[in-house]
Every structure is written in structure tokens, then in C-alpha cells.
Amino acid sequence: MKTIDLFIQSLAEIRVSYSHKVPSRDRIKISSSGDVHNVLQTIFADVMQHHERFEMILLDRSNRILGYHKVSEGGLTGTVVDPKIVFQVALKSNASSIILAHNHPSGQLNPSEADKAITNKLKEAGKFLDIPVLDHLIISEEGYYSFADDGII
């Protein structure tokens, strides 16, 4: 019995918490890819041409923004996206849906095959977890590309 007590004492406690700073009525509502792009311009302002970064926007059931989270940062031509991290954050924040976004420092807005593959992988995982991926935007100083607007999501 003493061995079990020592084992239990050495286990890490897992805590899950969520708190918001802004009441639902005051959160930004997303109705289009243009709305998302407007928000992303501020989020990506410091890295737009410097290096690639992957962000996610977390939404409530009314498509109001709960918050955003930097998933990864990379180099000039790419960054690694771990689906486990994406959905860990989505689950922890009680998100009803998510929007993905990353920048292309080159200014090129067309999605690469890697962009399409990670979008599809995250879309399928979202279906399984009942947290739909509503869109994935690629942004640059030239504008943006929306997977949803193009019918890919």
C-alpha cells in the first residue's frame, strides 16, 4: 500500500482551465473571410515578411472570437504544425470551431501541397472531435487566400 501512495504522490496533476476576458456580446463576430483577414493583419503585423507563422482563431457557437493562439513559427519557407497542439488548445478553450491561418513572407498567396495536406488533416481531425475547421487563410502584404472561399474546405 505504501508503494501505491508514493506512486500517486509522484504523479503530475493535470489541470484544465478556461477563462475569458471579454463578455460574449463584446467579442468580434466573424461573418466572412474578410472579417478574419482584418483580425489577422494585426496578429501577423510583426512577422508578415520576416518568417512564417501559423496561428489559429478560436470561435464560440455564434462565431465570435474567443481568442487566438500561435501554433508555430518557422523560417522563410515553412513552419511545422502539430495537430495535437491545435486541438489541445481548441478543446481547452471550449472552442466550437476554429479558423487556421499562416503567412507567406514571399507574398505568394497560392497554397502549396503541404498547405493543402495540413488543412485536410486538421479538417478531418476537427470532424472527429466535432470542432469544425471553418477556414484556412494564407495572408501576405498582397492580400489573402481563403480555402473556404475557394471551396477547398
Main attributes?
five-stranded mixed beta sheet, Cytidine Deaminase, domain 2, 153 residues, 31% helix
Protein described:
By secondary structure, this protein is an alpha+beta fold. It has one domain (29-146): Cytidine Deaminase, domain 2 (3-Layer(aba) Sandwich). The chain has 4 helices and 5 strands, in the order H-H-E-E-H-E-H-E-E. The chain has helices spanning 2-10, 33-43, 83-92, 113-129; strands spanning 53-59, 65-73, 97-103, 133-140, 143-146. A 5-stranded mixed beta sheet has the order 2-1-3-4-5, with helices on both faces. It starts with a helix and ends in a 7-residue tail after the last strand.
Layout of strands and helices, then pairs:
Layout: H1 2-10, H2 33-43, E1 53-59, E2 65-73, H3 83-92, E3 97-103, H4 113-129, E4 133-140, E5 143-146
Parallel strand pairs: 3-4
Antiparallel strand pairs: 1-2, 1-3, 4-5
